[in-house]
UniProtKB/TrEMBL annotation:
It comes from the Bacteria. InterPro entries: dGTPase-like, HD/PDEase_dom, HD_assoc_2, HD_domain. Residues 61-178 form the HD domain. It comes from Erysipelothrix inopinata. CDD domains: HDc. Coiled coil: none annotated. This is HD domain-containing protein. SMART domains: HDc. GO terms for molecular function: dGTPase activity. PANTHER family: DEOXYNUCLEOSIDE TRIPHOSPHATE TRIPHOSPHOHYDROLASE (PTHR11373), DEOXYNUCLEOSIDE TRIPHOSPHATE TRIPHOSPHOHYDROLASE SAMHD1 (PTHR11373:SF4). One of its GO terms (biological process) is dGTP catabolic process.
Amino acid sequence: MSNNFKKCHELKVMRDPVHGYINVEYQIIWDLINAPEFQRLRRIHQLGGTYQVYHGAEHSRFSHSVGVYELVRNIIEKVAGLKDVLSEFEVVALLCAGLLHDVGHGPFSHAFEAVTSVNHEEFTDRIILEDTHINKILRETSEDLPQLVADIIAHRAERKLLTQIISSQLDADRMDYLLRDSYFTGVSYGEFDLNRIIRTLKVVDDRIVVKESGIHAVEDYIMARYQMYWQVYLHPTSRSFEMILLALFKRMRDLTLEDRNAMDSISFIKPFVSKGDISLKAHYQLDESTCLSGFMTLTECDDPILRDLSSRLLNRDLFKYQDVLDNDQMESIVASVRNLGYDPEYYVIQDYTTQILYMPYEEGVDSGIWVQMKDGSLVELSKASSIVHGFATGNMKEDSKVFFPDKVRTEI
């Protein structure tokens, strides 16, 4: 196992609005950034349809991924005791995992997964382990590297400390997207003291814990997550966009089941709306630019439902929404939509969502944030913070809405 990883002939830097600079020391990181599968992330919005509400939210999965890499690099450099317990091989694997953790994402963020049953984590695993440019770059550095990088991202790594840095309740992924999404949406909900949190982290028993002096900074971080979810990520207008996307893909899937040639005009969509294996090539070719081009083609297709739904997406003519109260209300909405001439199968969509703010430790479950108290003892965060205890033991916040058109639409 190599412990002599090639460095760039000079430090590479990329300007970043959140972290100031993205610093690249290892050649493998620079090569991965320039790999086609990673460059594809430039063509995928970080926040799916949220730019329909917050027009500045045009940032990409690419910018988030290099941000997570930079945060991982900072954590390794600054968390007390961390560099001492990591080999160079593990350091490089962590940097690669931070960079590549979202490389399997499809267009329109998580909405795409809901409508196609394509799991971005599965494709991330495949892109790292199968025959791709990224796999080749990793293998040329070390034959063992692709597997460890994939295992860290997929929570399979034997050493839990490695995964904790990338994916836990206090990780580089969450910390970057809260700050980045807050910046680009123009809100302050996601702001917290990143530097303070990193300064109060340390390694104890091969686990990263928070010093007692960092509790307040972590409380702010958890509250930032809460506010961002309900004010930004789960905004009903953004969800309306996603519901139309859901209906559009459902219609394409239903038509394909009736006639396998139905989607020939946008053939790149076909693997995602028909049952069967999806190749890595098909996944690579599908980004938001190809989807939007396909939707434009559908605005002139023969099927009136596809024409209408694709035009709504392109022109932001979104569904109305209201809270779901009872069955009588739903029946009234269905009848109203049918009277307008729309098929409720595609034009009345219920969406239930909830968010778990913080998951305390459970026996046998790798969860929870641990705090080292002044006396040296380790205490789970919900027992060390009355604020977090209230979140962990209180009622889960839920939201159920129905989305539907409330007027006849004139085709453009």
